């Protein structure tokens, strides 16, 4: 009226927040130094066991070698690249079974990591699950070439083992930015490995790497990892808690997240 035209105001919807108001998992960030100190002072209770052997398994490019480098860098106080890492060609850069020791001054810590060839969906590509099963029992010799798979007639096959040759923890390394694209054939291989580890009563865990590449909030600040909706979605909605748990028998409490250095 009065020659004026009414205009309809447009209210733009505010984009949904990418963060929760509080962390969805409590993390004692202030205890990092205490954790490092405890690991440096770790003493094994069995004199027959020289090292706790931790085996890393996962798809090609998941960040197994980089994870080892990240741990070593923490204890050395500088960036280290002892475990060579390169996933640019889509094939595993790691070809042999190798043990990585973490130095602690003039000695080494009583836990070691074994890096292995990455898992692939094709039957003839990547590490053979049977090789991983044998490594759990300490049957692979240092320097074993993962192609072809080892047999009891192979020179890389160890007929007798010592307590320090055995695997005491199996860690599955999963890349957060690729987790929703994991192949069903890879899950079948993981299930086979998991069943072997379970029969040996070996503790198992999942490490989710490259969380900074999966979420910009985490890339800006690692402490946003447990307020990030995207990271929680990776853990709960995608295969780690659906296809992963159904196919491999894993549950959420075994999944840890980290950023790795290249």
UniProtKB/TrEMBL annotation:
A GO BP annotation: immune response
Compositional bias annotation for Polar residues: 1-12
Signal peptide: none
Region of interest (Disordered), residue spans: 1-25
Full protein name: Interferon-induced protein 44-like
């Amino acid at each position: 009226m009065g020659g004026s035209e009414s205009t309809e105001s447009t209210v733009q919807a505010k984009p949904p927040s990418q963060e929760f108001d509080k962390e969805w998992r409590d993390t004692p960030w202030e205890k990092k130094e205490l954790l490092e100190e405890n690991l440096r002072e770790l003493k094994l209770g069995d004199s027959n066991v020289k090292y706790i052997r931790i085996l890393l398994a996962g798809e090609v490019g998941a960040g197994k070698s980089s994870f080892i480098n990240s741990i070593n860098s923490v204890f050395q106080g500088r960036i280290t690249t002892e475990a060579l890492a390169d996933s640019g060609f889509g094939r595993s850069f790691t070809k042999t079974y190798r043990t990585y020791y973490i130095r602690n001054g003039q000695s080494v810590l009583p836990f070691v990591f074994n890096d292995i060839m990455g898992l692939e969906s094709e039957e003839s590509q990547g590490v053979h699950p049977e090789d991983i099963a044998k490594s759990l029992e300490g049957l692979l010799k240092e320097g074993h070439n993962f192609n072809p798979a080892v047999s009891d007639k192979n020179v890389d096959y160890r007929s007798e083992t010592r307590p320090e040759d055995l695997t005491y923890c199996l860690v599955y390394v999963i890349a957060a930015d690729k987790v929703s694209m994991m192949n069903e054939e890879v899950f079948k291989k993981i299930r086979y490995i998991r069943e072997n580890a379970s029969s040996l009563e070996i503790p198992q865990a999942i490490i989710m790497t490259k969380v900074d590449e999966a979420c910009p909030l985490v890339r800006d600040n690692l402490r946003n990892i447990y307020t990030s909706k995207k990271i929680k979605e990776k853990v709960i909605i995608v295969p780690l808690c659906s296809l992963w748990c159904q196919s491999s028998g894993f549950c959420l409490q075994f999944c840890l997240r980290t950023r790795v250095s290249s």
